[in-house]
Amino acid sequence: MSQLPDRQNVLIRVTWRSHKPAQVFALAILLSACSGNPPGNLGVSDGRLAPCPQSPNCVSSQASDEAQRIEPLPLKGSPSQTQALLARLLADEPRARLIEQDANYLRAEFSSRVLRFVDDVEFLIGEQAVDVRSASRLGYSDLGVNRKRIEHLRQRLAGQP
Q1: CB-CB contact of 120 with 51 (8 Å)
Q2: Tell me, what DSSP letter sits at residue 107?
Q3: 145-158 and 79-92 are packed helices; what angle lies between their axes, rounded to 10 degrees?
């Protein structure tokens, strides 16, 4: 009767080892699902960035809702100089990728450290200032991450010569 628990332990160990690759694969699939697909409304339409959704996981300098509104970034030199500087700053940011760069427009993707949630960050460089939009792809609340990100970029931009 004392051998029964030993046999169960062996069976449990063998089962765990044989299913471990499947568990790792399932975890990888689950974590990759955190990135989601980019929304179809990104980019510039009629000279404006997409409006923020009703959820509190987005900030925009073009938002009319005070809870989602953030001040635009100032220009550093000409609009083209500011765009080049922003592209360099984004290249130095951890877990950020510059996805799109057109005349007076930048789009980057930032991923969170642990679960790899993706946020879309857009910059519309105008003649007077840089309009910004930072929004989470998934979830409802971002715990202020998008606002902190834009303010961090504002500080880095201000510190540039």
Answers
A1: no
A2: E
A3: 120
Residues 6+ apart with CB under 8 A from 97: 108, 109
Site of tokens 């510039």: 44
Domain locations in the chain? Answer: 1-32, 38-158
Reported as a single tens digit per residue, the pLDDT across 27-62 is: 444 444 456 788 889 999 999 999 999 999 999 999
The per-residue pLDDT for range 20-29, each reduced to its tens digit, is: 665 555 444 4
Question: What span, in angstroms and rounded, lies between the C-alpha atoms of 80 and 33?
Answer: 36
Q: How far is CA 12 from CA 3, 8, 16, in A?
A: 14, 6, 6
Assign residue 68 a region: left if phi > 0, alpha if psi is -120 to 50, beta otherwise? alpha
- At the topology level, CATH places domain 38-158 in TATA-Binding Protein (3.30.310)
32: amino acid identity, one letter:
S
Structure tokens at 120: 């879309």
